[in-house]
Amino acid sequence: MKPIERFDLISKIGRHLQSAMTTTDINVYLKTFGVKTKDITMADSKWVYVKELLSDVDEQTIIRIAQDLGLEIPTVIAGSIQLKNLLDGSAMRVGRADFEKALQDIDTDPPNAIGMASTTLESICKAILDAFETPYPNDESLQPILKSVFQTMNLSPDGHADPDLKRVLGGLSNAGSGLAFLRTKYSTFHGKGVSQLRLEKRHARLAVNALTTVGMFLVETYIEIYNEKKNANKKDILEFSDLGMPPQDDMPDFDLFDIPDDEIPF
């Protein structure tokens, strides 16, 4: 979240609470989100008081408060916070750095934001393939890598009978592939001809939102598969232990998932 976006959102929260709650109610409400409050029952300005309380609060908490109050939050902000947190909690921190650069450049350098959005999705895809020990395709550009990820996690539209699900999965795949074409034709990653169309910040915002949607879906799908296999592994170990037998040699090898619960093995 940019500083100005954070400032505006905190200000909206302050205005809303100022009109809806007493100072005591504000303290009780914000404490439910883990926000430290002051031992006062009446603030000179509830708006200023709320802004002071939230000045050092993390972005995710601010987003949660705004959502709970029903305040409008730009999609690119809400989705980006979730994706950044997922990337930061794994071995994909390099992807987070690229993602943050894409977000920062939407308004100031749209072509570069588009290129960084595509690069971030490529990093996510490669990390997932690494986790599944799936070789990269010979062509390591985004479109074939994305296709390989969809196949690896059983997300290919052709693999599903439900026509509506096929449409949605096909749309996600096309959105991801579209980022690759935008990077090739319009980003700063390639040279441009004299008559080359110049994309604006609205196009960059579209590209970053597309990355957020596709990236979140892929990461969350991977985490779900990871949790299912880890739980299955634990269950198998317990069952063999009850029988006084060690796990059989031909059991699935889930060493990839043998890590602490709070870490995701990308």
Number of domains: 2
Count, helices: 10
* Radius of gyration, CA atoms, in whole angstroms: 23 Å
What general outline do the C-alpha atoms trace?
A: globular
What is the H/E order? HHHHHHHHHH
Helix content range of the residues, please? 55-70%
State which percent range the strand residues make up.
under 5%
Round the mean pLDDT to the nearest integer and report it.
Answer: 80
Main pleated sheet: none
Q: Give the number of DSSP strands.
A: 0
The structure class reads: mainly alpha
Q: Are there runs of 5+ residues with pLDDT below 50, and where?
A: 243-260
Structural topology:
Blueprint: H1 3-20, H2 23-31, H3 46-54, H4 59-68, H5 75-88, H6 93-104, H7 110-131, H8 142-152, H9 163-186, H10 201-242
Question: Would you mind describing this structure in some detail?
Answer:
The protein has 266 residues and is an all-alpha fold. The protein has 2 domains: 73 residues; 166 residues. Helices cover 64% and strands 0% of the residues. The chain is built from 10 helices and no strands. Helix 7 runs parallel beside helix 10. The radius of gyration is 23 Å and the shape is globular. The two termini are 25 Å apart. About 7% of the residues have low confidence.
Annotation keywords:
mainly alpha; 266 residues; globular; 0% strand; single chain
Quick summary of this structure?
The chain is an all-alpha fold.
